[in-house]
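User: Sequence in, structure out. Go.
Assistant: Echoing your sequence, followed by the structure tokens.
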Amino acid sequence: MRDLKKKISLSFSLIFFFLLCITSYFPSQVYAHPIVIDSNPKQFQSLENPPDRVIVYFSEPIVLPYSQISVIDSEGNRVDEGNSENYNGDTSTISVPLKPDIGEGTFTINTKVLSAVDGHVVDGSVVYSIGTGVTDFSHVKSESKDIVDLLSIENSLSRIPGYVGQIVIVGAAFIFLWIQKPLSKFEWIKGVIQSNLHLIKRDLIKLSIIGTVLVLFSIIAILLIQATAIGGSVGDVLTTEFGKIILIRLGLTLFLLGFLLIYYKRFNNSKKTRDEVNYFIATMCLGLGLLFTNSMISHSAALKSFVPVLIDYFHNIAASFWIGGLIFLTFVFVSKIFLIKDEELKAKIISMVIPRFSTIIIPVLGSISITGPILLWSLEANLSTTIASLYGKILIVKLILAALMIIIGGYHQFITEKKFSTLSIKQLVEKGHRKGTIANEPNFIKRFSWTLRFEALVGLGLLFAVSLMTNMVLPSGELPSSNITNSTEIVNLENPVQNSDVYSTVVYSENQKIQIHLEPARLGENKIFVEFSDYNNKPTTNIINASLKLSEIERGIGPIVIDMEKISNGRFNAIVPLSALGLWNFEIQGKTSQPNAPNTIATFEVNIKPRISDLQFNITEYKTPQNSLLLNPVYQASTDSIWVGDSLPGSGRLWQFDIENKKYEEHTIDGINLITFSVLDPKNTKILWFIDPTSNILGKFNTDTKKTETYELPNKGVIAGLTMDNRGNIWMSIIQDNSILKFNINKNNFETFKIPTANSRPLSLIYDENNNYIWFAESIGKIGQLDIQTKTINEYPNVTKSDALERSILSEPTALLLDGKNSYLYISDHEKNSVVRFNTFNFVFKEYPLTDINGLAFGMALDAYNNLWIAQHVSDTLAVLDPDTGETMNIEIPTPNSFVQYLVTDSKKDVWFAEQRGNALGKVTIKFIPNNSQNIASTPSSVTDNANDNNNNNQTDDNIAKKSIFNTLRFNDFFGPFIIIAIAASTILYVNSSEQLRKKLLEIENIEDRNKLKGNKTV
């Protein structure tokens, strides 16, 4: 009775210690990873005047040298000064001053920061606007995390081996020391199992070495991933606060590995055992050091208090004793004990080990039931947020696995231990008859062995869940959100339609379709309408909520997640802030209420670009020093120059115009009369190939050495087009010969490809790298496709297969331009003064008429906004066309009778043109002038369902009522009773295990006393 009181007093002393920890610490919010918790300007804030600087506040300290911040305007231009710093010395902030006079518009703050606590690198974006007429985004709710970001997959996978390894090191050493102590008290047991103990110790050292190697592998993986994340070296990682802890961890690991290897060698070479306990104590202590370094880079370290780190440390120690000890028992101790041939002794050892293990594990479980909720409370005090988050879902999985382990452990304590005890007693009673031996219970032994292994595997699964939780984003960093999903159904996209007012598309899944309308599909505030329905346009009722994730990858914006508002069954809308021009990726996720049914995800892209009417154009002309007939300009990026041949008879020269210095340089070539077409070698951009049609010569000009080589063409006729493929072959179209001519520069030979249609009059040609084709225009009303691989030619439209409308869509195709990114081939039609877009994937034509009735469409180029520029060489105008909307505008060339035929763009996507009769090169500079007026789309009637409003409102009210009831459940209301019950249960079970162990030891002690009296030694 006195011992019982002591044990109970000890339990309550432990409880008092943890309660003291609680009262000495009040939780503050932590997010795990440096999550943006505030900013100045705030997310989606509208300001009348620009701030001097922007500031972003994070949930934990960051490493400034390896963190980045930038501010870009709607065109992607940086408007910050670039000198980032911690604001007022606060290491949890990053700030950068802005350039003066940045003007009005929408701006995006992009951040990429390295946590000083756990070493995670996290991206973020904040959108705001400046100006009285600029969009107000203040009512938009957003998030920035998907499941990959939440789990921190790379970091989690790199840390899992280390977490498992350190648990095994500490737990295995401790449980061996704990169990071997009562075994060493009895000489008759020690004498019989001496060889078995030797095997157990040997395998324990091996297990510790494996655990240490896992920790070492984890450290190396962490360092490599961190170096990649910050764009630096491993040495750079080690200079951070996080890296310093990793360095200490690395030192402990290497020391422990060396220690274990030396000890293992000594152990194999010697049978001495007197120092083995000290070795295992040293191993455990070094393992405890590893556990502490793990707590120093855990979620708890972000709370800037030592108490939560200490609680996390005790929690990890308890988990090590439980799971690490169980792994040791399963794969080392029990397997070697089963090798004992004396079945009576085998039964006694197992029946003694089970309560001995329980006497330490039950208090351990009690401490876990205390430290776990306290630790969770310190990280996230909102229970509803925890349960709704991905972190909470993994926590539930962890608790289920832990409960399963406890159930199996309880079975072993109350059932297995009694069976082993019963068999041992039966054997004593029957003495030498051996009728009750373990050998007569094969099913029981097999079941015990498999349940023990299963429990250990469940423990490894639990460690995997814990390691994910220790590296993932906590609930406060993930939510507010209720749309994280486990299963999804990816759907297919129908051809989208975009005009100046709306972007529309339909996405189909296996059993439903999603209609999407984005208005006005322009920079600034947009409204998106989404309708989930079946194929008969009946709204889907099982989609309970929807969310939208959008990002602009090129500018590093997002992902930004927005909760959509439910209009009626299956219909949702939201305000979408599009803060920069460019290609935006949209992902709509509909969450279903149907159990085990996949959620629906629809993805599509929208090119957010300005209207042509929002662009400002400025033309600058640069006259040549002498009379010239400039024809076909090409841009050389290495020298930032425009090269153009002079088609003036007898000139024989190339002109080089230096864009920066705005100066011409003349290069006269001997033996050349005039130059029409030219092209730069894609593999060696110092080489410029050109055509002299009057001399029937192909020329090669080195722009560095100014040396020239010439090749006589074998086919007679006018060269009307010139291009090169990616293997260095030169392709030319010859009008009179009705052929395509190939020159192989490696073999120095020519090859002719005859066009199937007679007298097709081939003109412009262009290389399609994606398909390895040569496309060429046939001025009789076709385009040709030459497959370089098969050397076959196809022509479109196919007269036999096309309808009358398609056959007449081309009248006199002249020039070609390839938009390989979108699989479009643009064709200028000289006679119709129109542009035809040909889809090289599905072979569909689309025509865009141009508005200048006097123009003749010729050469083309694409600007930075993917607008198409067309030379109209007899009307002194350039046409600009938005292929997405069909909007067109004519830009007048200042010089009359300029006769422009070909265009090219430079590195800034300014459009250059050659004035053949104007003795000049011209440049069009394009500037976006945002329209500050708001354009808020109204809800289209096709997306509104007034008949269901009442039902929808009732559902909404019910949901609000449920949420309010759920939110009233406080953390301590739930876990307070749980902790009390866990403490009471642990105390009762601990007393029961202690009593079991006391009886078993007393029984073994009586046997040993009897053997001593009889002078017999038990074998």
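User: And one key feature?
Assistant: The longest strand covers residues 582-592.
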